[in-house]
Amino acid sequence: MIRYHLDESVRTAIAVGLRSHGVDVTTTAEASLLGAADEDHIAYALAHERVIVTHDDDFLVLASSGVEHAGVCYCHQQEHAVGRLLQMLLLVHQCCTPDQMRNHIEFL
């Protein structure tokens, strides 16, 4: 099953919602990565086999540059309300495997 890591651009309500559905998720604060470089988030997520959830398009640049990653789910900051983003992440969680997400960017 996919496990998620939310970067600091994603509201904690998403973590609460995912957890209420039994999804394993970490947040930037929980991982002691507040203020850390995007590369540190990618390394953390890869080491812990977690797909990064972000609104930060800098992760798209990193992921596209050949940096190995466990996967990125990207959603533009103003694209979806919390409930809709939660639904999409639950769908990815149900439909994709960690192997399918590895080095893959999912645009939400």
Number of strands: 5
**Helix coverage percent of residues?**
40-55%
Query: From the 3D coordinates, which CATH architecture would you assign?
Result: 3-Layer(aba) Sandwich
Beta fraction: 5-15%
Overall average residue pLDDT: 94
Total individual domains: 1
The number of helical elements comes to: 5
Order of helices and strands: EHEHEHEHHE
What is the terminal separation in angstroms? Answer: 19 Å
Structural class: alpha/beta
Q: Give the CATH level 1 class.
A: Alpha Beta
> Shape from CA axes?
globular
Taking pLDDT < 50 over at least 5 consecutive residues as the criterion, the unreliable ranges are none
Main β-sheet, in a few words? 5 strands, parallel
What's the oligomerization state?
A: single chain
Strand order of the largest sheet: 2-1-3-4-5
Radius of gyration: 12 Å
CATH topology: Rossmann fold
Describe the structure.
With 108 residues, this protein is α/β, with parallel strands linked by helices. The chain has a single domain (4-107), classed as Rossmann fold. It is built from 5 helices and 5 strands; from the N terminus they run E-H-E-H-E-H-E-H-H-E. The longest helix has 14 residues, at 82-95. The radius of gyration is 12 Å and the shape is globular. The mean pLDDT is 94.
